[in-house]
Every structure is written in structure tokens, then in C-alpha cells.
Design brief:
alpha+beta
């Protein structure tokens, strides 16, 4: 394998990794901690611990990345969060 081919493969892998998007959940004054935790477990397939940590981060920092992946996977999840009355967007 030539050095040029190996470097190109490494670049290809890095490009694939950087094409990932994120769902960012924003804080609001409406939804309860329990509701947000349950939503993250149901929609984003978080464990209880992950959901609790994200909810605390959202509360104190104002926002938190709750899911990373390809846009086609994130879009229905983000829509489900929005349909539950949560504030989220894909970046």
C-alpha cells in the first residue's frame, strides 16, 4: 500500500467523522426534569444516567448536545423532541 493511498484513506475517515450532526436541547421554563429525562430515554435512547446528566447540563448551562449522528437519523428524533414541547435543533 502506498503512503499516498494510506493518507487518503485516513482523510476519508476523518471527513466521514466530521460530517456528523448534533441535536442540541435548550433549556425552558415549562418542562419538568422528569419529563425531559423520560423524553431523552424514549427518543434518544439514553440510559437513565445519561438522561439525568444531560438534563442537569441543559438546566445549568442552557443547552446540551443530546445526540450525535447522521442527519437522516437525527431528524426524526429532533422532530419527536419538538413534538413533545421541548426546544431542540440539529446543528
Amino acid at each position: 500500500m502506498s503512503t499516498k493511498k494510506k493518507i487518503q484513506e485516513e482523510v476519508d475517515v476523518l471527513e466521514q467523522e466530521t460530517n456528523l450532526n448534533e441535536i442540541v436541547l435548550f433549556n425552558d421554563d415549562v418542562n419538568t426534569f422528569d419529563f425531559v429525562i423520560d423524553s431523552l430515554i424514549d427518543v434518544c435512547e439514553h440510559t437513565l444516567e445519561q438522561a439525568e446528566q444531560c438534563t442537569i447540563l441543559v438546566h445549568y448551562k442552557g443547552k446540551c448536545t443530546v445526540k450525535t449522528g447522521e442527519y437522516k437519523d437525527l431528524e426524526p428524533r429532533c422532530t419527536a423532541l419538538l413534538n413533545r414541547g421541548l426546544s431542540a435543533e440539529i446543528i
